[in-house]
Design goal:
Elements lengths: L1 E3 L3 E3 L15 E3 L24 E3 L9 E9 L8 E6 L4 E6 L9 E4 L10 E3 L8 E3 L1 E2 L6 E3 L7 E6 L4 E4 L5 E4 L4 E4 L15 H4 L1
Antiparallel strand pairs: 1-2, 3-4, 5-6, 5-8, 6-7, 9-16, 10-13, 10-16, 11-12, 13-14, 14-15
Length: 204
């Protein structure tokens, strides 16, 4: 952890790859700066900030895949770290949200061959009760929307053929279809709340 005059506090990122590995999955993102889709200002006193490039994350890990973690990277558009995966079956690269304790060289799976291991994506019906999960979809074959920020996790507490009950990190419990997808583990960068910007100018 680096600190300057007890004001700016940032976490060290020595284990992360500085240069993005999958450049084809990176796109420019326009800063709307408090404006709506017609260009009118809806939130005043917004603007500035460092130019960022958005990393396309694979939030729909439904098809059968066997991949290896090739790098762990920093994503400027989210609090969690991301991992680049090379898929042996489909011969392609993609990004996922990196769970805690996922290392370079680990194998991650999704689809039929997936089982209960960190980074594997499978349906709720295949996850044992009490397991910690993240990156949860609300409907079958849809994009994952729940538990994606740094350090968060949900827990599967009940399971039957009709529905599964999940407790979110906020303490709220929800019922989901057993066919909804989730990823095993807790989201990485759990100490992100230690970051302190220090001043408004840097935040801008």
């Amino acid at each position: 952890m680096n600190s300057i005059k007890n004001k700016l506090t940032l976490l060290t990122k020595k284990k992360l790859k500085k240069v993005p590995l999958i450049k084809s999955m990176i796109v420019g993102k326009k800063n709307m700066a408090g404006k709506n889709n017609s260009g009118k200002i809806t939130v005043s006193h917004k603007g500035g900030g460092h130019k960022r490039r958005y990393r396309k994350i694979n939030f729909v890990r439904i098809k059968d895949s066997i991949g290896i973690v090739t790098s762990l990277e920093y994503d400027p558009c989210r609090t969690a770290f991301i991992a680049s995966i090379y898929d042996f079956l489909n011969l392609e690269y993609f990004y996922i949200i990196a769970p805690k304790n996922l290392n370079i060289g680990n194998i991650v799976k999704s689809g039929f061959g997936a089982y209960t291991k960190i980074g594997h994506s499978l349906t709720l019906m295949k996850i044992p009760i009490g397991g910690f999960i993240h990156n949860i979809s609300l409907k079958e074959n849809k994009k994952a929307q729940l538990t994606r920020s740094a350090g968060t996790s949900a827990q599967l507490i009940e399971k039957n053929p009709k529905y599964c009950r999940v407790i979110l990190s906020s303490g709220k419990s929800i019922s989901l279809s057993p066919t909804c997808q989730a990823t095993i583990g807790t989201v990485s960068n759990e100490f992100s709340f230690f970051n302190k910007i220090g001043k408004a100018g840097r935040n801008r």
